[in-house]
């Protein structure tokens, strides 16, 4: 179980030499001595385009390492983790919805979700159907994901991200293409799942903010 993820003077390589300039200068995350995300707390990272929110998500998920400083999982330096530790973290502790979603366009909505859920056996088929219905995409279950609107694809990707246990849910602009009602429905769903697991949420936004009930707002 992961209780805390801490950033110690983290700075993307691309921002080296910009310590006294925007966006680094006013950031509440970059170059902070100790910024800690705690399990059970929700964080909304507000950022302008190009300030590095997708980079931050990739660093925490361990898919990129082009940063200075340290990222610690319960005090352990993420740079020391081998592939086995990352796999374990991603299987049990970290759920991630990247901005580009990563759906397979030629597979159906249900196949896209099952491809993940078969590995985790986290939800039953009936539970997946009821999640699709809850997010008003139940009738799309048999359609290729590539034929859905971007907002519909976001809802599929959110359900897929929830098909695993997690201590932290990392979601990069999860509602950028959703209207207010769907934003609310998605927020209620992930709040319910995170609360049940006692998990934290780290969400980013350049505009449309996910309507979580209670969160710490951070400026990147
Ligand atoms: N894979 C990568 N390797 C190295 N640098 C990258 C990579 N992806 C993005 N960058 C650089 O990092 C900086 C921040 O990009 P990033 O995609 O993290 O920003 P963002 O805040 O998510 O932007 P947006 O809201 O437009 O998606 C940019 O200058 C970009 O060129």
UniProtKB/TrEMBL annotation:
<dbReference type="InterPro" id="IPR017871">
    <property type="entry name" value="ABC_transporter-like_CS"/>
</dbReference>
<dbReference type="InterPro" id="IPR015854">
    <property type="entry name" value="ABC_transpr_LolD-like"/>
</dbReference>
<dbReference type="GO" id="GO:0005524">
    <property type="term" value="F:ATP binding"/>
</dbReference>
<keyword id="KW-0067">ATP-binding</keyword>
<dbReference type="GO" id="GO:0022857">
    <property type="term" value="F:transmembrane transporter activity"/>
</dbReference>
<dbReference type="InterPro" id="IPR027417">
    <property type="entry name" value="P-loop_NTPase"/>
</dbReference>
<keyword id="KW-0547">Nucleotide-binding</keyword>
<protein>
    <submittedName>
        <fullName>ATP-binding cassette domain-containing protein</fullName>
    </submittedName>
</protein>
<dbReference type="GO" id="GO:0016887">
    <property type="term" value="F:ATP hydrolysis activity"/>
</dbReference>
<dbReference type="GO" id="GO:0005886">
    <property type="term" value="C:plasma membrane"/>
</dbReference>
<comment type="similarity">
    <text>Belongs to the ABC transporter superfamily.</text>
</comment>
<dbReference type="InterPro" id="IPR003439">
    <property type="entry name" value="ABC_transporter-like_ATP-bd"/>
</dbReference>
<dbReference type="Pfam" id="PF00005">
    <property type="entry name" value="ABC_tran"/>
</dbReference>
<feature type="domain" description="ABC transporter">
    <location>
        <begin position="5"/>
        <end position="220"/>
    </location>
</feature>
């Amino acid at each position: 179980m992961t209780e805390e993820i801490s950033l110690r003077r983290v700075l993307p390589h691309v921002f080296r030499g910009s310590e006294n300039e925007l966006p680094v200068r006013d950031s509440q995350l970059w170059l902070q001595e100790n910024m800690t995300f705690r399990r059970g707390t929700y964080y909304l990272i507000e950022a302008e385009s190009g300030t590095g929110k997708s980079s931050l998500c990739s660093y925490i998920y361990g898919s990129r390492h082009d940063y200075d400083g340290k990222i610690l999982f319960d005090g352990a330096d993420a740079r020391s983790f081998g592939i086995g530790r990352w796999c374990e973290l991603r299987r049990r502790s970290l759920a991630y919805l990247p901005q580009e979603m990563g759906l397979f366009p030629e597979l159906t909505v249900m196949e896209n979700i099952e491809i993940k859920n078969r590995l985790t056996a986290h939800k039953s088929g009936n539970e997946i159907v009821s999640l699709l219905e809850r997010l008003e995409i139940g009738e799309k279950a048999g359609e290729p994901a590539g034929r859905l609107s971007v907002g519909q694809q976001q809802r599929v990707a959110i359900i897929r991200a929830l098909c695993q246990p997690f201590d932290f849910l990392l979601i990069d602009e999860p509602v950028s293409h959703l209207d207010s009602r769907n934003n609310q429905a998605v927020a209620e769903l992930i709040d319910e799942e995170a609360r049940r697991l006692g998990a934290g949420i780290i969400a980013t936004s350049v505009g449309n903010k996910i309507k979580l009930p209670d969160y710490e707002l951070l400026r990147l």
